[in-house]
Amino acid sequence: MNANMGLLLMMAAGGALGGMARMELSERLARLAGTAFPWGTLAVNLSGALLAGGLAGWFGMSHEAAMSSGWSLLMVGLLGGYTTVSSLSLQSLSLWQSGRRGAALANVSATVIAGLVLAALGWWLTGRLA
Length: 130
What we know:
There is one protein chain. The chain is mainly alpha-helical. It has helices at residues 3-33, 39-59, 63-66, 69-82, 85-97, 101-129. The protein has one domain (3-129). The chain is built from 6 helices and no strands. It is globular. The chain starts with a helix and ends with a helix. The chain crosses the membrane at residues 36-59, 71-90, 102-125. Fluoride-specific ion channel. Important for reducing fluoride concentration in the cell, thus reducing its toxicity. It is a multi-pass membrane protein.
C-alpha cells in the first residue's frame, strides 16, 4: 500500500468516527434543549473549533504536519466528519425563512466568532501544555 492510500484510509476512518460523534451529540442536545434552535450543531462546531486549534498547535501547520497520518486521521478525518458547515447553513436558512432572522444571525455569528475564539484558545492551551 502506498503512502497516499494509507492517508486516505486514515481520513476515512476518522471521518466515520467524527460523523457518528456529531450525530450522537446533536441528537442528545436536541432531546435536552429542544429543536427550536440548532444547539447540537452549534456545540459540535464550537467544540470542533477548540479541538482543531489544539491539534494545529500540537502538530503545527506546516506541509509536513498536514501530510502526517495523525493530521489525516484527527484533523481532516475526525474533525472533518465531526464539524459541519452544511448543517449550519441549512439550519440558519431554515430559521431565516421561518421569520426567525435574529436566531439565524445569532447562529451564524456565534459559530464564526466563538469558533475563532475557541480555535485560538485550543492553540494557546496546546502551546502551554507542549
